[in-house]
Design brief:
Radius of gyration: 21 Å
GO molecular function, one term: heme binding
CATH architecture of the largest domain: Orthogonal Bundle
Structural class: mainly alpha
Subcellular location: Periplasm
Cofactor: heme
Helix content: 25-40%
Order of helices and strands: HHHHHHHHHHEEHH
Protein name: Methylamine utilization protein MauG
Number of strands: 2
Oligomer: single chain
GO cellular component, one term: periplasmic space
Number of helices: 12
Amino acid sequence: MAWKIGTAAAVALVIAGVASSALPGPPVQRAAWREEYRTPAAIPFPEDNPYSAAKAELGRRLFFDPILSIDRNRSCATCHVPDLAWADGRPRAQGRHGGDLDLHTPSLLNLAWQDGPMGWDGKFQNLESVPFGPITASANMGLSEAEAVRRLAADPGYASAFAAAFPDAAVTRPRIEAALATFERLIVAAPASFDRWIAGDERAISESAKRGFDLFNGRANCAACHSGWSFSDGSFHDIGVGRDDDLGRGRLKPNSVALRYAFKTPTLRNVDERGSYMHDGSLRSLEAVIDLYDRGGIDRPSRSREIRPLSLSPDEKADLLAFLQTLTSGPSTAPVVAELTETPPRP
C-alpha cells in the first residue's frame, strides 16, 4: 500500500505501541502513526480493467437497474444503498423471497483498495468476479447468466452503452463484470473529520478521539487488521465471533487451522452508520463490538494472534468510540461516488 510507512524505525514505533499505555504516546510516535492514514493520490484500477468514463457510466446504470433480477424488482442497490453507507442497515441481507440471507451486507466503500479475494469468506477471486454471485443466486436476484446477457443485448440503450464502453456492441458476462467493478471502485469515502486531522487540523477531532487513535494503533492493536487509509488489511481473521458451524474462509481452506472461522476485515469508514456488525450481523452496536474485542472473543486455536483480552476501562472504551465516530464523512443521505471523468479520478 503506497501510504504505508516504509522505514524500519516507524515500524518499530508501531510495534512498540502495542504494549503502550492508553495515554497519548510521544508526539513522534503519534506522528508516525498518522502518516499511515494519508489520503492516496488516486483511485487504483487494475491493468486488465482500466478506468474509462463510459465503462463506469455503464456500470452505474447496471448497478441501479432491476433488469438483472429475475422478477425485475431487485438491483445491486437493493442491498447496497447509497444512503446507508452502501450497505442496507440490516443484521443480514434480505432475500428475494422475504427471508434473511446468511450474511450481513458489507459496505462497498473503498473497494478499490481491497486487493485479493473478495466476499466475507473470499470465495470471489477479485471484484470483477463478484457480480454474478448475487445475480445468479436463487435466493438473491435469481437470474441466469444467459438471460442476463439476452436482456441487455435486446435493449437498444444498453447495446449503445456497451458499444461506447467496449470496442464493439457485444454484451458478455466479462464485460458486465468489468463495468460493474469499474463503477464500484468509484464508491469512495468522502473526507471525514479524521482526514482533516491527518492533514494537520488539530481541532478537527476531540482530545478523546485522539486518545482513541492512540489506543487503536497502540495497546488495543486494532490497526493490526484495520490498517491504512481504508482501514482494512484486505485479509481474513478469526476474531472470536460466530457459530461453531460458521467456518468462513475455513470452508474453502479446510486444511488451514488459521483460516477456520476467519472472515474478511471490513473497512471502518462510515462505520457508525453501518450497524449491525460482523459477518453475521450478530452485534447491534459499536459499543458491543468494542466489548467483544475487550473480552478477546472466543478462545480457540484459530483465533488470530492479534486478538486477546484488553481490560479496557470505561473511559478507554469511550475514547475508542469517539475515534471511530471521526471516520464518518457526513450525513448518510449524501451518496459518495467519485466524479466520472476521462482520466482516473482522485478519491
